[in-house]
């Protein structure tokens, strides 16, 4: 092992390690990596930096790169810190993120200075791309936050400009440098996951294809590359091709099991979109057995999928659906004493099975498709949307003819109407869809448990108005969904979606006085 390493060699070795990683040779990549060096600070300098930190213009080229690596390491360490469940860890994590961002800002200044000097660094491209990735990621992901939160963060020194973030990451991805792939992965994560789950559901698939294309040629069997190929296919509605690629991704390596779990999750949903409930169950079951991310969500999802299957098929699996639902509450995680919203939602739904006389959930797996914004994906396949609509209308008819309606009857009817409206909207039957959403909104005072249905239906009605070209009515309706309701399940998730929807319409939330609040 070398005791010292020059910068050029370090960059070359890092590039080799990255290539090994992308070719699924994870252990070989780790064996090749060596610790980075960073300028040590005195106690006085450290205390001074807490209050005032100026760009360090006396750093050597190696030390500049070390600063950049340190910022990256801080960010990764912060992410790991958040896995701990104590408030102290959250505070520490927040401080690490802030320090990381400040170092990135300092590196940005250093990069600009080097660019303006006649004797540019020979490694300037690598350094600049690292700055692109850091500044770009912070700006892009912070821009997702609602304006009230973002203003507070900007006061603390952070910045969150979506266009700046996209521009920086695109520059980094196109730089043909060590960190090009990292900027590419940040953009793919944003386009293919963040903007889908926390946005309106629309993904920039054209740019995603362009970003991934060179890596498909260079790393055709790389697990990450196969995974993102499959994810793009899912969002295009090409579930059959996606399933093939996810299976190839699983077979490509056995060392990084978390990638397998991501593939199981995606396979579970792609088969759910096709209403192939037996296949979907197989992958939900694998997640329950192998993954520790969120057992409450996995068990609820498995039980929900089983609820969609014929009774004779459920018996063949040997599962007890009621017992699975009853397990959900005990499996919930808490981070810093706070519940995870999707787990809280699942546990609240599963409570119906804990009563002395259990009340059966109505098409729960279809409802969960909506929770994860899956209708925007299914909507690209009209025949599958029609098939889901048939399932929803069967549930609607059963509720209509229920001789012994439970206390959840109105809630169930409204949930079914909202899901029906989504299908009709994606099929282009806008007038019928509008009737479904307005029915839910007008039933507000009769809904006892699922209060989320009203603001979510109002949001979906706003998107319908947008589809009709009435941006004024769309904006007003969506703003009402945000301003007039609180305390319902998955409130923050809807606020993210509202923020994204209003941004696409070139508007911001008006400061209107709230005039109504849900129970």
Kindly describe this structure.
- The structure is a single chain.
- With 519 residues, the protein is mainly α.
- Among the domains are: 36-178, no CATH class; 385-519, Serine Threonine Protein Phosphatase 5, Tetratricopeptide repeat, CATH 1.25.40.
- It contains 26 helices and two strands.
- Strands 1-2 form a two-stranded antiparallel sheet.
- Helix 15 (295-307) packs antiparallel against helix 17 and helix 21 (382-400) runs antiparallel to helix 22 (409-426).
- The radius of gyration is 25 Å and the shape is globular.
- The protein starts with 6 loop residues before the first helix and ends in a 15-residue tail after the last helix.
Properties at a glance:
519 residues, mainly alpha, Serine Threonine Protein Phosphatase 5, Tetratricopeptide repeat, two-stranded antiparallel ribbon, 26 helices, globular
Describe, in short, the structure shown.
The chain has 519 residues and is mainly α. The chain has 26 helices and 2 strands. The protein is globular and about 80 Å long.
Summarize the SSE layout with pairings.
Elements: H1 7-22, H2 26-32, H3 43-51, H4 61-81, H5 87-116, H6 124-142, H7 147-155, H8 162-173, H9 180-197, H10 205-218, H11 223-236, H12 239-252, H13 257-273, H14 277-290, H15 295-307, H16 311-317, H17 321-327, E1 334-335, E2 338-339, H18 341-350, H19 364-371, H20 375-378, H21 382-400, H22 409-426, H23 430-442, H24 453-468, H25 471-483, H26 491-504
Antiparallel strand pairs: 1-2
Helix pairs in contact: 1-2, 4-5, 4-6, 5-6, 6-8, 6-9, 8-9, 9-10, 10-11, 11-12, 11-13, 12-13, 13-14, 14-15, 15-17, 21-22, 22-23, 22-24, 23-24, 24-25, 25-26
């Amino acid at each position: 092992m070398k005791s010292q390493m020059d910068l050029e060699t370090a960059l070359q070795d890092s590039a080799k390690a990255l290539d090994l990683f992308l070719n699924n040779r994870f252990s070989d990549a780790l064996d090749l990596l060596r610790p980075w060096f960073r300028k040590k600070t005195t106690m006085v300098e450290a205390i001074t930096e807490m209050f005032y930190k100026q760009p360090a213009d006396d750093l050597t080229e190696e030390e500049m790169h070390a600063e950049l690596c340190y910022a990256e390491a801080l960010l990764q360490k912060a992410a790991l810190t958040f896995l701990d469940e104590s408030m102290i860890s959250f505070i520490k994590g927040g401080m690490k993120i802030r320090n990381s961002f400040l170092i990135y800002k300092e590196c940005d200044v250093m990069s600009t200075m080097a660019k303006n000097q006649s004797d540019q660094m020979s490694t300037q491209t690598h350094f600049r791309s690292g700055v692109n990735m850091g500044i770009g990621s912070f700006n892009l992901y912070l821009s997702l936050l609602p304006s009230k939160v973002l203003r507070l963060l900007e006061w603390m020194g952070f910045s969150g400009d979506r266009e700046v973030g996209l521009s920086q990451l695109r520059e980094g991805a196109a730089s043909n440098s060590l960190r090009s792939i990292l900027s590419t992965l940040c953009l793919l994560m944003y386009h293919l996951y963040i903007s889908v789950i926390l946005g309106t559901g629309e993904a920039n698939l054209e740019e995603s294809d362009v970003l991934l294309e060179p890596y498909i040629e260079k790393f055709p069997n790389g697990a990450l590359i196969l995974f993102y190929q499959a994810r793009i296919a899912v969002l295009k509605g090409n579930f059959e091709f996606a399933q093939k690629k996810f299976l190839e991704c699983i077979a490509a390596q056995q060392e990084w099991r978390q990638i397998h779990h991501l593939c199981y999750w995606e396979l579970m949903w792609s088969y759910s979109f096709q209403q192939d409930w037996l296949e979907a169950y197989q992958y939900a079951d694998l997640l329950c057995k192998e993954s520790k991310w969120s057992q409450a969500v996995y068990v609820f999802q498995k039980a929900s999928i089983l609820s969609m299957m014929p009774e004779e098929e459920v018996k063949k699996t040997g599962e007890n659906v009621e017992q699975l639902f009853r397990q959900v509450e005990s499996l919930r995680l808490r981070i810093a004493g706070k519940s995870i919203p999707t787990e809280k939602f699942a546990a609240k739904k599963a409570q119906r099975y804990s009563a002395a006389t259990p009340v059966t959930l109505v098409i729960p797996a279809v409802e969960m498709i909506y929770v994860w914004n899956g209708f925007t994906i299914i909507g690209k396949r009209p025949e599958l949307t029609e098939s889901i609509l048939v399932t929803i209308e069967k549930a609607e008819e059963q509720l209509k003819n229920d001789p012994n309606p439970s206390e959840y009857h109105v809630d169930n009817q409204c949930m079914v109407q909202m899901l029906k409206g989504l299908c009709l909207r994606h099929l282009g039957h806008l007038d019928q869809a509008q009737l479904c959403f307005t029915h839910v909104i007008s039933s507000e005072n009769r809904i006892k448990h699922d209060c989320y249905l009203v603001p979510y239906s109002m949001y979906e009605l706003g998107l319908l108005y947008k589809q009709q070209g009435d941006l004024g009515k769309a904006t007003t309706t969506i703003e009402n969904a945000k301003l007039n309701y609180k305390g319902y399940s998955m409130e923050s998730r809807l606020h993210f979606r509202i923020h994204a929807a209003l941004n696409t319409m070139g508007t911001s939330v008006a400061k209107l006085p709230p005039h109504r609040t849900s129970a």
